[in-house]
Structures are given as structure tokens and as C-alpha cells.
């Protein structure tokens, strides 16, 4: 089991247009005769609340050139008959869990990479379920038959090649990408199809005359390292199909930051309203921070104005904290420092640079009564866990204009996207 | 059978394993009157896990309006709701 002879078999299972097909299957189960997957349709936010962007699209909608992340009215211009359904995160979690339960029958080592993707370590399971391709077809067909939606399965000898193989032709297919196939199957693809290569990297690589994954793989690694630093080496390895990251069963991604943000129903023009939104965001961020048994050392605020320009402002704290009021005080100061006074559409609060909340070095400049405040926060948290988030709220939210805790869609346990293999 | 998917009121029998079986149900009929229908026979029981939503499907038959008619009722496990699905 050691040395170069040890070759892994990794599968990547990816749900085809996940949010949309889950909603479609759910509707069919409820007795609808119309299959959303067969008509131009999208899952989108509510336009009345100004969250109208396309989250997922059906294949016929794709044919009209509709893209994920596009504004709904733009999508409607491309296709006037477009059907839009609201997002339902509880349903997505249910589908994702059902998928996990089914796949768990085939391997003990499964990593839930995001809400609709997972890596399966199939190494050594051939004796039970047959050759990888055979097993992949079996899993794919069972998912289709029992859960009603289609998936793509990519098979490779590491997570990267499995993921690339999973992105080949869709839907409802099984593809392989073994080391000997990399030069034919992966190298002709455009460089932006490679994992971790986004718009910005693509620009930089194009300047180096690199347009395909093959060109990247055959570029001198030192040149890339010089231009893109360590990231250059990472993508060079990826282009050559080199990736040694293990399939982490369970979900152990180290959190680096916690943030919540919200698009407000109307444009905010005064400090009072903005502070209210920020407070309600801070409440949920601080709750999550304490639930993770961490303290933060950096607080940041982000603002998107009505012209859709984003900017943010952050500050390093003198000593780490997880106290709602202390975080909020910094949030407000940061907000006042950076807000230019224009109309605000979207606000976000984010905390990063964590340390454990077990031991904290106090200082002379700390606020008074830290222990008391910590005790207050933990009492409030306990009440909220037991009786729901609305059980205790600050008086300022009594008018019901904003929810006392904003942010989150119920699917935070698994990120919608991730960049760490 | 036609798809109707009406919510219905049900008297069901749960065995010691926790398996529910419908005994009789009532719903509004075409004349908007409450009609009680006794489930004479359960022909088939299936578990539907579409979209991760568990529903137990019962294909049954009963004597109604002077003839034996097949129908399908469903139990949604997460919400404990019963539906007359097809008749």
C-alpha cells in the first residue's frame, strides 16, 4: 500500500443544475405535470426584495444564453417565456443529505465538497461493486431512479482529475480522466476550465501566451512561479494532473472567516437604518463565531451602493473578542469611517483571523466587565438555541422593519462553492 | 386513474415497527360534501425518495359508487400529511 504503485481511484459526483433539478423533482413528486428541466426556467431570488439574480438554470434556458449570476430582468429579455421559481434551501439540504446517504453505501470515505458535489474514495472497493466505471454507472442510475435527479460522475486517480472529468459533457454521464488520458482529454481545454483559474488568472496567463491547459502544463514551472508566486506552482501541478490531497471524510474545512451580508429591500440613505441592518448582521455573525468556539481579531464591513460598486473597510482589533456589542461597536466605527454617504443597496459584516476562545490575553485597554458580557452573550445564545432566534431580540427591532438576525439561508453547513480541494 | 393530489383526513393503523397503514379517509367529493371512504385493500406499498423527500405510496382499492375502484394515497413522512394522489 505504499510507494508509487499505490494508485487511488477517486470519483467526483456532481448534480446537474442542482438547485433547479431538485426543485423540478420536488414539484413532480408533488404532482406537477410540468418538468422545469424541460422548459426554459431558472431558480432566482425574489425581484420584489431586489434579490433577483439567476442562481441556477435549466438546459433549455442555457440555450438562450442565460448565465448563472445574471440579473433576472436581463434573463427575461433573452427569453420572455422564462419561468422563475424561488430558492428553497431547506429542500436543497434535504436532497444533498439523501444523496450522501445513498453514496455512503459505496464507500466509507466521502467528502462533501459543497452542497451538490462530493468526492468518493473508491480505492479498494472494486471487490464489492466492480470496476470504477461500472460502479459509477450503477451509482448514477440508482440516484436517477431513487432520487429522481441526474448526476455526472468523474473518475480519476486524484480529486483534481476526478473533478475535471466530472465537468466534461453533461448531463447524466460518466467520464474518466486517468493519467494516460490527460494529454488527450484535458490539455486541449481552454485554460479557464481548470480548477482555480478564474477570470483574473486567465488574463495573466493569456498575457504569457497561455490559452489551453496543455500550454500551461508545458510551460516552465519557474516562469509561472516567478509571475504568479506559489499559486503558479499550484496551477502548474493541476494542469499536469498532480494533486495529492486526501478525501477528507466528514467535513473538516478549517474556517478562516465568518460573514453575513444582505441586500436590503430599499436603498438605505441614513445612518440610523444602516446601523440597524449592521446590528442585525452582527448578531448572526457573532452567534456563529461563538458557536465555533472562536474569537476574532479582524472585523470588516462591506458596502455595495446603488451603482453596484463594492468597497470594504477592515480593522485589526487590539485583543480578540467574540462579544456582540464589542464587534458591533467596531462595525459602526468602520462603517462611519468608510461610508461616502451615497445610497446603500447591500451591507455585509465579516470577522476573520480566529483564535480559540479558551484562553485570551487581557490587556489594560480592554473594555470593562468582559466576563459579564461574555456571560450575557452565552445566556442569550442558549435561549436562542432552545427557543429559536426570535425568542430574545433587541428593542430597536420591535417595529418589525428588519429581522433581529439577518443573513444565512439555512445551507451554511456546506458552502455552495469552495476553492480548497 | 387521474392525478388529483388532495390533502385528506385519515385514520391509520401504525404497527409496532412504525409502519403506517391507512384504514379509512375522508375528503370533499365532487358535490363538495365530506365523503368517507374505507380502504378495502392495500395492493402495493412503496417508498418514494424523490428529491430526498420521503413519501410512502399506497396503491389501494375500495368499493365506492357501486364499483371497486383503484386509487393511490401518499403519506409525507416529514410533515405527517396524507394526500389522495390518484383516483
Just give the CATH class of the domain at 257-397 in chain A.
Alpha Beta
Main structural class of chain B: mainly beta
Q: Assembly type of the shown chains? A: heterodimer
Count of the separate structural domains of chain B = 1
Q: What summary fits the major beta sheet of chain B?
A: 7 strands, antiparallel
Could you list some keywords that capture this structure?
heterodimer; A: 421 residues; alpha+beta; MutS, DNA mismatch repair protein, domain I; DNA polymerase, domain 1; Dna Ligase, domain 1; four-stranded antiparallel beta sheet; globular; B: 87 residues; mainly beta; seven-stranded antiparallel beta sheet; 0% helix
What would you say this structure looks like, in words?
The complex is a heterodimer of chains A (421) and B (87). Chain A is of the alpha+beta class and 421 residues long. Among the domains of chain A are: 18-88, 3-Layer(aba) Sandwich (MutS, DNA mismatch repair protein, domain I), CATH 3.40.1170; 187-239, DNA polymerase, domain 1 (Orthogonal Bundle); 257-397, DNA polymerase, Y-family, little finger domain (Dna Ligase, domain 1). Chain A contains 15 helices and twelve strands. Chain A has helices at residues 18-29, 59-63, 72-78, 89-103, 126-129, 132-147, 159-166, 182-186, 199-207, 213-217, 221-228, 230-239, 271-291, 324-338, 370-387; strands at 10-15, 41-44, 54-57, 83-85, 110-114, 117-121, 151-156, 174-177, 257-268, 294-305, 310-321, 344-356. A five-stranded mixed beta sheet of chain A has the order 5-6-1-7-8. Chain A has a four-stranded antiparallel beta sheet with strand order 9-12-10-11. In chain A, helix 4 (89-103) crosses helix 6, helix 11 (221-228) packs across helix 12 (230-239) and helix 13 crosses helix 14 (324-338). The longest helix of chain A is centred in the last third of the chain and has 21 residues, at 271-291. The relative contact order of chain A is 0.10. Chain B has 87 residues and is mainly beta. Chain B has one domain. Chain B is 0% helix and 69% strand. Chain B is built from no helices and seven strands. Chain B has strands at 3-14, 20-28, 34-38, 41-48, 55-64, 67-76, 81-86. A seven-stranded antiparallel beta sheet of chain B has the order 3-2-1-7-6-5-4, with no helix packed on it.
